[in-house]
Amino acid sequence: MVPKLAMPMVDVRDVALLHVRALTEPEAAGQRIIASDSAPRGFAYVAQILKDEGFSGPSTRIAPNFMIRMTALFDREAKGMLGYLGMDLSADNSKTREMFDWLPIPFKETIVDTGRAIKAAQG
Question: Is residue 112, in this structure, part of any structural domain at all?
């Protein structure tokens, strides 16, 4: 099961690109760079993308908040999610997009590539 929460996500390749550009482009000096997509994406949505692409294992069932709270008593990752349960967070990346003429890597591509990389690392 997955937690009921959604947040903007971004491909690590975009984060690396934006770091380099922020360090090398003078107009970025002193600016706050938002390295994320703007739309919130839920964990169930991510799991559905993986299932649709043939990955086995991800659950699209949403865990009740009380279950995440109970799990948080024993699990650091679950504990870190407590403050975000039930939220749909968004981000305004318009300044980053404009400053660097940047478009995030498409979300589905990010998720599928990540799934493939994890699968390859597991052997």
Answer: yes
Matching residue, tokens 């493939």? 116
Size of the chain in residues = 123
Q: For the chain, how many structural domains are there in total?
A: 1
Q: Within the chain, where are the H helices?
A: 12-24, 43-52, 65-72, 76-81, 94-100, 107-122
> The domain containing residue 100 runs over which residues?
6-122
**Hey, which residues does 62 pair with through a beta bridge?**
2
Give per-residue pLDDT as tens, 24-42.
999 999 999 999 999 999 9
Neighbours of 53 (CB within 10 A): 12
Q: Is the pTM of this model over 0.70?
A: yes
Do 38 and 92 contact (CB within 8 A), yes or no? yes
